[in-house]
Structure formats: C-alpha cells, structure tokens
Amino acid sequence: MARDIDALTASTLKHLRERWWDDKFTSFLRERLLPRPGNRILDVGCGVGTAEVSLGLLQLSQVRLYGVDRLVDRLRQAVADTRARNIRARFATGDACALPFKDAVFDSTFCVAVLQHIADLENAVRELARVTRSGGRVLVVEPDNAARYWFSSTETGKRAFELGGRFFTALALARGDTTDPSVGPKLPAILDRHKIEPVSVHLFPVSVAHLGAPAASAWASRREAIVASIGRAESESIKRLGADYLKLLDRYAEEAASAGSAFVEIQNTMLFATMGVRRE
Ligand SMILES: C[S@@+](CC[C@H](N)C(=O)[O-])C[C@H]1O[C@@H](n2cnc3c(N)ncnc32)[C@H](O)[C@@H]1O
C-alpha cells in the first residue's frame, strides 16, 4: 500500500514501477525491437538492467544486448543480476548525450524512463539516431509527468496534491533541473527532427485506485519520504513550503480516516512508447 500511493511523494512514476513493467511490457519491447539472430540492441540509461534481465529471460537467440548508464553503481547491479541468471549482456558507463559507440553499430536502440531526466534532449535523441543503423529501430518510452491525473474524495487531498507539485517543482528548480516532465507525447516530433521516422505510438496507462482510508503505515511512509525531501532542500523558503505540505498531509490523513470506507484516491499517468525507424 505504501508503495502504491506515491503521487504525493515523488514527481515521477518511479515508485510505481512494478505496476507497469510486467510481462506484457517486456513482450511489447520484444515486439517493437524486433530482435533477430546476430542483432545488437542498445538500452540507453539501462539502470540496474531491468530490460536486460527481462529480455534475457526470453532467451532471444544470438542477440547481443548492450546497456549504457552514467551511474556505475547501477551498472554493477546490472552486471550482477544478469550474471546471476546466466544472461549475456554487456554494460558500459557513458552519457546518453555522448554515447561511447561508433556510428550505426546497433540494429535497435531504446530507452525507458530516461529522457525525462535529461535536459539536453535533442542531443540525446541525436545520439540514439547516430548509433542506430539506417533502417534500424529506435524505441523511446517516457511519461508525461506534468499531466498526471489525481482525484481525492476530500478537498484537502486535492490541495495536498497541488501543494506537493509545487514543493517538488521548487526542489527541482533549486537544484537547476531543467528537464522536461512532459517529454513523452513530444517524442514523435523530436525523433522526426533527428532522422528517425516515427512509426507508432503506444500508450500505457499507469493507474492506482484506492477505496477506503489508507492504513497508518501508508501515511507514515508518505511522511518519511516528504521529510527526506525537505532534508535535501537548501533554501529556507523551500523548507517552509515542505513543512506546510507536511501539515496538510497530516490533515489529509485525518480526513481520510474520518471518511473511512467512503474515501477514494485515484491517480493515473500515461507512458508514451514511440517507435521510429532510422532514415538513410
Ligand atoms: C528511471 S531510471 C530507468 C532505468 C531503466 N531504463 C529502467 O527502466 O529500468 C533512469 C536511468 O537513466 C540514467 N540516466 C539519466 N541521465 C542519463 C544520462 N545523461 N546518460 C546516461 N544515463 C542516464 C540514470 O542513471 C538511471 O539509471
């Protein structure tokens, strides 16, 4: 439950991951990436290797999987997790905006939930295009975090979501974050600018609905996550905003408890999976 009700503790889908990266999503990746014997497939921003493990378990015949990420710790885990399952995948440290590969060496290139974290989006997409052979596939799967749907049956719940959004935006601005939270639906046009012909867009709704007041432990987790975020704030005004947000969250918890079984909370975000083909 605590992991389910997360829109008040993060500005992205990260804690909802288990909800959308399921077997159906892995099958979708396989279908779109079109792995053939001898193919090289690159996962940019591979993180802990979720894609390599999921695709590797499908035992794609003679397909070489590569993952690149800028964080060494994540790559270490990716190496350990693939080895533990006897999956052959190669990993490299690198920046999505300056990939450590020659031109046109991959048959398919993809990224999942990565471009939302990159300020220099055009360069990252240019790099995806550069390393993909002509006629090869590029798949980008990204959300529109700015257009999240939120419903709460209490007025305070609605206000808490709005204040939480302001708090997380202030935190992001203070650390100089200029990434675009709405990148998902913009990608067909961006791919098109970089010699990648957009071919399809597939939407994955990521939804959570709760009926009945959440348990005390769920509110405690929310609190804990917000307190940790306040701890990362450097400016006094953002700390104050965080403190106001915590107070509102506590009131929301009380209202939810009084509403009991009539309490409803719903959230939904869309993931946009755009597939394109590298032009000549
Ligand atoms: C939300 S995680 C997604 C990981 C993986 N694609 C998955 O879906 O499991 C985002 C990943 O992108 C990586 N990342 C962010 N910016 C990057 C950049 N400029 N170059 C390479 N990796 C980057 C992060 O280190 C992180 O591992």
Descriptive report:
The structure is a single chain. The protein has 280 residues and is an alpha/beta fold. It contains nine helices and eight strands. The relative contact order is 0.17. The longest helix has 24 residues, at 236-259. The mean pLDDT is 93. The protein folds into two domains: 14-145 and 179-205 and 270-278, 3-Layer(aba) Sandwich (Rossmann fold); 147-175 and 209-266, no CATH class. Strands 1, 2, 3, 4, 5, 6, 7 and 8 form an eight-stranded mixed sheet that branches. Strand 2 (64-69), helix 4 (72-84) and strand 3 (89-93) form a beta-alpha-beta unit. The termini are far apart. The chain has helices spanning 17-20, 23-33, 50-56, 72-84, 121-131, 155-174, 187-193, 216-232, 236-259, and strands at residues 40-44, 64-69, 89-93, 106-112, 132-143, 149-152, 196-211, 264-278. It binds S-adenosylmethionine.
CATH class descriptor name of the largest domain:
Alpha Beta
Bound molecules: S-adenosylmethionine
The averaged pLDDT comes out at 93
Shape, principal axes of CA atoms: elongated
Chain oligomer state: single chain
Biggest sheet record? 8 strands, mixed
How many domains is the backbone divided into? 2
- The counted number of beta strands is 8
CATH domain topology of the largest domain? Rossmann fold
